[in-house]
Design a protein that fits this description.
Elements lengths: L1 H7 L2 H17 L5 H4 L2 H26 L13 H26 L1 H6 L1 H7 L6 H22 L4 H8 L1 H15 L3 H4 L1 H23 L1 H4 L3 E11 L3 E8 L11 E7 L8 E4 L9 E5 L16 E8 L11 E7 L3 H9 L9 E8 L8 H10 L3 E7 H4 L4 H7 L7 E5 L2 H13 L7 E3 L6
Parallel strand pairs: 7-8, 7-10, 8-9, 10-11
Antiparallel strand pairs: 1-2, 1-6, 2-5, 3-4, 3-6
């Protein structure tokens, strides 16, 4: 288990090393005096390195977008690999943007007009491909980072990153320069580029038949309070195998719903009929009430490592906000007599008492497991839940593992509050569905 934990922390470091490997290959090609001996060479060198490392990082960003379960070995769940995808996507964009800006320095020394012409299409096919790739990337990332649009439109526009990458890759190998004379660098970037294109086509173009899905039909839909429902699914053929607290990407086949897959936690325990709990919160889930028994569903997964048995401390605090109770419900339904040596305080927070979904079943489970202490928290009566209030009821919180799932602002605030109390980051675990 210890080795797996170390491996799970290596993903970010691996991406950083692979992204800046072109710098090492570039440095060994020529002595430094031929790179940085004057301002002209300095700006040119920095521009070249920004472009080479930016392309390597761009390749890795597309590879991470493939959503392979293999990535969970190197990150704390597939959701963290998406966080890395988002972070390194922004950093790659900055590097690729600085690439032409630094190269333009020598043209600025001649005249402003020369610099302006450098950014415009010309007779060089390689340069033109670079301009097209950068423009497509800028438009796509501006939409991604700064515009609030419907998820299916966002997902469609995101596919243009693959087009931007192809143009950028063509630019890299047609423009000449260092890469033309550096065989190891050429092979390295070409290898990463091919892997990135394969990953892009696997996820964005051919996912409907290249990705493994489990076929299900809806058996029953149970309507609950606070615009929440629990959907029971029945396998058509092979059942998905999962551990409590995990989630899958579910695609429902209903004329009122769009066809993209969305992440939902499993609310049932392993061995029970498969169930997911969904709350009407956004463009997609607001139409979830149109689902009916007999509708088909495809599930990709399982994903995630958010399970109380994965953490070393048997004294734990579970914190759920709203529909974030779902993975905890799965874990509670999975509790056995062998787990009675765990000491768990569950804080379940919602706007008001009527929004505390599953409260009856949760209370019933807590009566069977004496070491499961449930604190129901209605914010309209007691204010927002915070780390100081938790410490009043759970005085030894600093000796426990903290598991959090809920709205992003709530999770971010609680993490910062616990850290300010002196808890270690390794004690705090969260489940977040951030798809970029």
């Amino acid at each position: 288990m210890k080795q797996n934990k170390i491996l799970q922390k290596s993903g970010w470091l691996i991406v950083i090393i692979l992204s800046f490997m072109p710098l090492a290959l570039w440095l060994f090609e020529l002595p430094l005096q031929y790179r940085f001996s004057n301002s002209s060479l300095l700006f040119r060198s920095v521009g070249d390195v920004a472009g080479l490392c930016g392309m390597a990082m761009f390749s890795l960003v597309l590879i991470l977008s493939a959503r392979l379960k293999f990535f969970e070995k190197f990150f704390k769940g597939i959701n963290e690999s998406y966080t890395a995808h988002h972070f390194f996507g922004g950093l790659a964009f900055c590097l690729l943007l600085f690439h032409p800006l630094f190269l333009a320095y020598n043209y600025f020394r001649v005249s402003f007009m020369s610099a302006a012409l450098f950014f415009l299409p010309g007779p060089s096919l390689g340069q033109n491909f670079g301009i097209i790739g950068l423009v497509v990337m800028i438009i796509t990332l501006v939409i991604t980072f700064y515009m609030k649009i419907r998820y299916q439109i966002w997902k469609f526009t995101h596919k243009f990153l693959g087009l931007a990458f192809v143009f950028a890759l063509l630019h890299t190998f047609l423009i000449g320069g260092d890469i033309a004379n550096n065989q190891p660098l050429k092979i390295y970037l070409l290898g990463l580029g091919i892997l990135a294109i394969v990953a892009y086509f696997y996820r964005a173009i051919f996912s409907s038949f290249a990705v493994k899905f489990f076929d299900y039909t809806i058996k029953n839909i149970k309507s609950l309070q606070d615009k929440t429902c629990e959907i029971e699914l029945q396998a058509v053929d092979k059942e998905i195998k999962f551990t409590s607290g995990q989630f899958g990407f579910v695609k429902f086949f209903n004329k009122e719903l769009t066809m993209e897959a969305h992440p939902f936690s499993f609310s049932s325990a392993p061995g029970q009929p498969l169930k997911i709990a969904i709350k009407e919160l956004g463009d997609y889930t607001n139409k979830i009430s149109s689902l009916k028994a007999g509708d088909r569903a495809k599930i990709e997964g399982p994903f995630g490592s958010f399970n109380f048995r994965n953490y070393k401390r048997k004294k734990q605090v579970w914190i759920a906000g709203g529909i974030g109770i779902t993975p905890f419900l799965s874990m509670m339904r999975d509790l056995t007599n062998a787990d009675d040596d765990y000491q768990i305080d569950l804080y379940y927070s919602a706007r008001n008492a009527n929004c505390l979904v599953f409260r009856g079943e949760i209370s019933e489970i807590s009566t069977r497991h004496k070491n499961l202490n449930v604190i129901l928290w209605a914010s309209d009566e007691r204010g927002f839940l915070n780390a100081n209030l938790i410490k009043i009821d759970t005085s030894d919180v600093d000796e426990r593992d903290i598991l959090i799932c809920g709205p992003s602002p709530m999770m971010s605030a609680l993490k910062e509050q616990f850290l300010s109390q002196g808890l270690k980051r390794s004690q705090i675990h969260s489940e977040e569905f951030q798809l970029y």
